[in-house]
Amino acid sequence: MTRGPRRATVKDVAALAGVSPKTVSNVMNETVFVRPDTRERVLAAVEELGFVPNLSARSLRNGRTGVIALALPDLATAFSADVVHRVVQVAHERGMVVQIEETAAEPKREYDLVSRAREHQIDGVILNPIRLKDSIIVHDDQLPPVVLIGEVEQHKVDRVLIDSRQAGYEVTKHLLERGARRIVAMGGETGATDATATSIQRLEGYHRALAEHGIEADPQLEVYVEEWSMVGGAEAAAELLARDTGFDAIVAFTDSIAFGALHVLDEHGISVPGDVLMTGFDDVEHARFMNPSLTTIALDRHAFAEAAVDLLLTRIADRTSPPRVVAIPHELVVRGSTTR
Amino acid sequence: MTRGPRRATVKDVAALAGVSPKTVSNVMNETVFVRPDTRERVLAAVEELGFVPNLSARSLRNGRTGVIALALPDLATAFSADVVHRVVQVAHERGMVVQIEETAAEPKREYDLVSRAREHQIDGVILNPIRLKDSIIVHDDQLPPVVLIGEVEQHKVDRVLIDSRQAGYEVTKHLLERGARRIVAMGGETGATDATATSIQRLEGYHRALAEHGIEADPQLEVYVEEWSMVGGAEAAAELLARDTGFDAIVAFTDSIAFGALHVLDEHGISVPGDVLMTGFDDVEHARFMNPSLTTIALDRHAFAEAAVDLLLTRIADRTSPPRVVAIPHELVVRGSTTR
DNA sequence: CTGAAAGCGCTTACAG
DNA sequence: CTGAAAGCGCTTACAG
């Protein structure tokens, strides 16, 4: 810096307030009780000098950075955008900033973040892991503070999730109640080798609902979706049509998959909800604005973000307490795509 | 840290390689030429000890953090999601990490970031300012490295933009060529007091196209949109219908506005493109998957992100060079919403 | 409740 | 091209 006055330091503040640097530190960090009049003098000096603590120096000393990482597979999806939006808001309210990471294109990044969080100058990680089997959470047992989001089947780490089995059951049951009998599961497939925990659970719920109605599962009606996006949904719908099997409803495992599938059905002159009923998961904003609007599973996204951030902050403060799980309630939102 | 071995430091590496800490630093930073065999020995020691530099210590010494901030008004929009996605990718390729900030809900944050970037431990900011008149860029002249994205009318700072005037002209001309005569501009309004530079420019292009075709601008056909989102587009469409004036096309100033408007038109039994033609701006992924798919203005988003990051890195390296402007080319993508 | 000293792990001058 | 010393600005023990 060539221009401008030198930034004030704790020393300057201490000198002006007539105390030691240690006392300034105590006031700034509110760790111990400081006598009110001392406190006042320090704060006045801070104000006068425009003192802002140097976070690099603080980090160097105490190992905390005030930064949490949010690592998601694909940042470009509507669901990711909403998670980022809310996590940033909640983190700010808690005095933390958020560093964003994307893991799908660069799988090593996921491992790297979790195995060397300290080296990356972050206090902890909120992670939506890509694949269950790849997740090093399972292997490594000396972890930094980590909160997993999404339905991951392991028990060493704090988690925020929704009950995907139950949700999968509910949407399928809804379709059965509306008269559908040949219901497609779009996103999971029995026996898929690289299935995610989420897809496995949603598929289980789907199977349970079918079984309750005395309907046997038909592998022809299970379509695997590699990329849970609109493109993936469009490809899956094309694959489904190519199988040339009858169907009267689709349970899409995310709203994005549903949007992609809807587009392809429309191109083929298949009407939703006229010919085929359709449901999604997530209730992204577009679900409400599509024509037809999309029946889907909604969750309290703010509660979701808040739980993730707060679990992480708790974990940062106490590394030894047992892992906790927070389940966020969900509900079925019925819209045009299942209403004839 | 109670468990695990102590992290290796430059000292450890220096001792193992039989050199001074300074030489280790020289090798790690590639600032000066180091004799190949010395270099090899140092790198071997780094490898053996798993040495990773402590970035807090580095920052404390040299003032750089390796962090850039990306500050957008609203993170939940599709356009934001895509910008975040691409900026994070490009920044990683350049060895930087990205801190995300949202400014619409917390307007002070914009000022704070730009006026005290150093205090926030960031090397620079990529900023999409909310309102022209609020932007402190105009007032302050001792700025940290800043790159503005979007059409901001000022010349003190590096900028990445598209030619919104020309784009506004092109979509309007396209609609005129398809026979539309009563074309609504949805997003800007002549004389709006808190108009953004973007909305002003798109409106100017719209006016120019009308003028070229000998059509007089009609204030009844200009609808102001407060929030450039689907909700805002839906509200604007409701407002337009309430005016009870004839129209045969809509130039929406973003794709999101178009989606919101499409939904309301559909609810009122107005067909796109049957009764009304519609265009957007941005070419977000949904534009392709809507029914009908949306005619819109596309830009090379990767080039956009790359230009923003690279301008910023150049600025961080050299604070004194004159401000630069990078214009990203755009093109009209014609789809179903303007094809009868 | 507050002070004086030491040190977190780097890199910047200053020498050679 | 490399070394020995100093210091970036905080906070952590250690005293009192």
From TrEMBL, chains A, B:
CDD domains: HTH_LacI, PBP1_LacI_sugar_binding-like. Keywords: DNA-binding, Transcription, Transcription regulation. One of its GO terms (molecular function) is DNA-binding transcription factor activity. Residues 8-62 form the HTH lacI-type domain. PROSITE patterns: HTH_LACI_1, HTH_LACI_2. InterPro entries: HTH_LacI, LacI/GalR-like_sensor, Lambda_DNA-bd_dom_sf, Peripla_BP_I. Pfam families: LacI (PF00356), Peripla_BP_3 (PF13377). PANTHER family: HTH-TYPE TRANSCRIPTIONAL REGULATOR GALS, LACI-RELATED TRANSCRIPTIONAL REPRESSOR. This is LacI family transcriptional regulator. It comes from Nocardioides luteus.
